[in-house]
C-alpha cells in the first residue's frame, strides 16, 4: 500500500565511500612517507657530500703546503667555483651547494679555502652528487611502485571490511523497514562485534520491544472496551425498542445503532490486530461479488465490470466487507458520483470530492483519525478495517487522489490458480 514505505536497502555506497576513504588515506600516507624519505635522503646526501668536500680540502691544503702540488680533484681558482666561495675568509674552509648539472656532473658540493693571505689563490674541491641523486630518483620510483602495490592490496581489504560493516548495517536497515511496515516481531538480533553498529542494532530491537508492548496494550484495551460495551449496547437497543413511537424514539434508536456499529467495528479491528481471523477462500466471479456488495450498501453507486469478469479465489464475505466500506467511505467523506470499476483482479472505487488528505496518504489509515475536516465525520475505523481485511486476503490496497480531483482506492487481489471465467459461486 502506498502510505507504508519500506526503508531502502543499505546500498554499496557506504562500502564505496569507506573503500575510497581507505584508499585516499593510504595514498596520503604513502605520499607523506615518500616526501619525508626523499627530503631526508636528499639532505643526507648533501650533508655527507659537504663533509667529504671539507675533509678533501683539508687534506689537499696540507699536501699543497708541504709539496706545492695539488692532489687529484683539487683545483686553484676553478672557473666553476660558486660566487659565494670566491672570496673565503683567510684560513677558513667554507662549503656551498651548486645545483648546476653538466652532463653526468652535478649537482655538486664545493669546499674552498684560501691558500695564504689576502689575494692568494683559492683551493677548492668538488664532490659530484650525481650518482647519489640518480640513486635517489630510483628510490623515489621504488617508493611509488611500492605505494601502488600497497594501495592495490589495501583497497580490496578496505572493500571487504566496509562490506562487513555495510552488511551489518543492512540488517539493521531491513529490520527497521519491517518494523515500519507493521512487522512488530522483527528483530535484528546479534550482529557481531561490540561497536557502534551493535549498539544501533540493540537500540532498534529495544525500540521494537517498546513499540510492540505499547501497541499490544492499546489493542488489548480496544478489545476489552469493545467486549465490555457490547452487552450494555445490546441492552440499550432492546430498551429502545420499548419506547413509544415518535421523534425521540427514532433519534435514540439511530444513536444506539451508531454506537452498536462502532462497537462491532472495534471488535473487528481487535480481531484483525490479534491475528484471530482466518479467510475462507473459494472461487467467485469478482464482478458479481462486487456488484452484490455495492447493492447491499443501498447507496447510489455506478458499477462497471469489464467483460469477461475475472474469477478469483478469495473470501467473498471479507471482499464484500472491503467493497462496502470503501463505497460507504466514498459517499460519507467524498462527493458524487461514486464509481466502482472492476478490471481483471482489480477493484477501483472513486469519488469526486476533495480527495484523501495528505496525512492519510503519507501515514496510511489510522483508527479514530478521519483526516481533514472536508472529508466529513466518522470514527475513522472504516479504512482501518479495509486495510486489515485486505492484508488478510493477501491483497494490495492503494490510496491515491485523481489528478482532476477525487479520492481513488484501488484493491488488487492476489493471483491464485487459474480458473475459467464462467466459474460460479459454489452453493
Automatic annotation (TrEMBL):
<keyword id="KW-0418">Kinase</keyword>
<protein>
    <recommendedName>
        <fullName>histidine kinase</fullName>
        <ecNumber>2.7.13.3</ecNumber>
    </recommendedName>
</protein>
<feature type="domain" description="Histidine kinase">
    <location>
        <begin position="224"/>
        <end position="417"/>
    </location>
</feature>
<dbReference type="Pfam" id="PF00672">
    <property type="entry name" value="HAMP"/>
</dbReference>
<keyword id="KW-0808">Transferase</keyword>
<dbReference type="InterPro" id="IPR005467">
    <property type="entry name" value="His_kinase_dom"/>
</dbReference>
<dbReference type="InterPro" id="IPR003594">
    <property type="entry name" value="HATPase_dom"/>
</dbReference>
<keyword id="KW-1133">Transmembrane helix</keyword>
<keyword id="KW-0812">Transmembrane</keyword>
<dbReference type="GO" id="GO:0016301">
    <property type="term" value="F:kinase activity"/>
</dbReference>
<dbReference type="Pfam" id="PF00512">
    <property type="entry name" value="HisKA"/>
</dbReference>
<dbReference type="InterPro" id="IPR036890">
    <property type="entry name" value="HATPase_C_sf"/>
</dbReference>
<keyword id="KW-0902">Two-component regulatory system</keyword>
<keyword id="KW-0597">Phosphoprotein</keyword>
<dbReference type="InterPro" id="IPR050428">
    <property type="entry name" value="TCS_sensor_his_kinase"/>
</dbReference>
<dbReference type="InterPro" id="IPR003660">
    <property type="entry name" value="HAMP_dom"/>
</dbReference>
<dbReference type="InterPro" id="IPR036097">
    <property type="entry name" value="HisK_dim/P_sf"/>
</dbReference>
<dbReference type="InterPro" id="IPR003661">
    <property type="entry name" value="HisK_dim/P_dom"/>
</dbReference>
<dbReference type="Pfam" id="PF02518">
    <property type="entry name" value="HATPase_c"/>
</dbReference>
<keyword id="KW-0472">Membrane</keyword>
<feature type="domain" description="HAMP">
    <location>
        <begin position="163"/>
        <end position="216"/>
    </location>
</feature>
